């Protein structure tokens, strides 16, 4: 199995890798993976499944890690990322990084922790000499000797009030082993990992919001490129107007890009927006009055 990966490494190019046998069942388009590039590991998103046309398959490197068993971006979102990259003339990896939630990207980072365990077992005489010469080292050794498994280095040092130099001295003489292991981070392990229950009924728009929403719907029905500026003070309910227009666009099989403008837009832009969405909306913008939303 061979996949094409969009690496999040600062350049816009699709790289192909071979997939190990144990990863193939969960590997799919949109999967977040870790791949080798030169001598470093980078995150990447699987963009396609299939061999490259202009590169020998036997020279392909292997995917190092499949971060999650499910896609980080769906096929639709990946297509949206490609469209945004072409439309806004920006690198695809920058778009993908923006679309991936920060906890997902951070959770995919490599984290290591250090553990301490008994190395060479000291005799009673050696332990007595160590107690006289370095009591902190002897105290740490006795603590580890009582444990059934390796303990976190940070926890041991905090409990004993010791410094890292104490551990280094014991490691140097072989009495203690320092173990470094990777910790797998699960970015989706939270209270919302199973989904969120939201209200089935949308909020009722007030008359001024409805006038603006009707103007946007009429603009969408023209089925041509349009730019509409919706001006209103903070908390006036602009987002609900956007959501209503997006809902209508999706229901009709089309979609549009809605960019939120600031509340201190230029007067000329406000007037242009007012003409586009209707006189009722224009009066609302000139008065700068925010009506509360009626929610069920």
How many strands, which pairing sense, and closed or not: the largest β-sheet?
Answer: 5 strands, antiparallel
Contiguous low-pLDDT stretches (5 residues minimum) are 261-296
Q: Give the number of DSSP strands.
A: 8
What is the highest CATH level, the class of the largest domain?
A: Alpha Beta
> Overall pLDDT, averaged?
79
CATH architecture of the largest domain: 3-Layer(aba) Sandwich
Strand order of the largest sheet: 2-1-4-3-5
- The number of helical segments is 11
**How many domains, in number, for the residues?**
3
Structural class by SSE content = alpha+beta
Order of helices and strands: EEEEEHHHEHHEHHEHHHH
Supply the key terms.
296 residues; alpha+beta; GIY-YIG endonuclease; 3 domains; five-stranded antiparallel sheet; three-stranded antiparallel sheet
Short description:
With 296 residues, the protein is α+β, with helices and mostly antiparallel strands.
């Amino acid at each position: 199995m061979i996949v094409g990966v969009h690496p999040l490494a600062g350049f816009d190019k699709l790289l192909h890798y071979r997939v190990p046998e144990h990863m193939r069942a969960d590997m799919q388009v949109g999967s977040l993976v870790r791949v080798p590039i030169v001598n470093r590991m980078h995150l990447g998103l699987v963009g396609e499944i299939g061999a490259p046309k202009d590169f020998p398959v036997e020279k392909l490197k292997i995917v190092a890690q499949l971060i999650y068993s499910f896609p980080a971006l769906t096929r639709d979102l990946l297509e949206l990322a490609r469209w945004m990259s072409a439309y806004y003339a920006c690198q695809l990896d920058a778009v993908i990084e923006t679309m991936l939630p920060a906890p997902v990207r951070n959770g995919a980072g490599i984290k290591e922790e250090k553990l301490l365990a008994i190395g060479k077992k000291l005799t009673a005489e050696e332990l007595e000499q160590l107690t006289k010469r370095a009591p902190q080292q002897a105290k740490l050794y006795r603590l580890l000797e009582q444990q059934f498994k390796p303990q976190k280095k940070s926890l041991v040092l905090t409990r004993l009030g010791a410094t890292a130099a104490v551990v280094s001295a014991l490691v140097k003489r072989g009495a203690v082993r320092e173990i470094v292991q990777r910790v797998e981070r699960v970015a989706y392990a939270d209270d919302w990992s199973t989904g969120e229950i939201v209200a089935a009924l949308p909020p009722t728009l007030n008359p001024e919001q409805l006038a603006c929403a009707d103007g946007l719907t009429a603009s969408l029905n023209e089925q041509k490129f349009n730019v509409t500026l919706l001006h209103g003070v903070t908390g006036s309910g602009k987002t609900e107007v956007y959501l209503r227009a997006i809902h209508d666009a999706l229901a009709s099989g089309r979609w549009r890009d809605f960019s939120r403008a600031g509340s201190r837009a230029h007067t000329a832009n406000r007037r242009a927006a007012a003409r586009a969405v209707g006189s009722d909306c224009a009066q609302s913008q000139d008065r700068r009055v925010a009506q509360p939303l009626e929610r069920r």
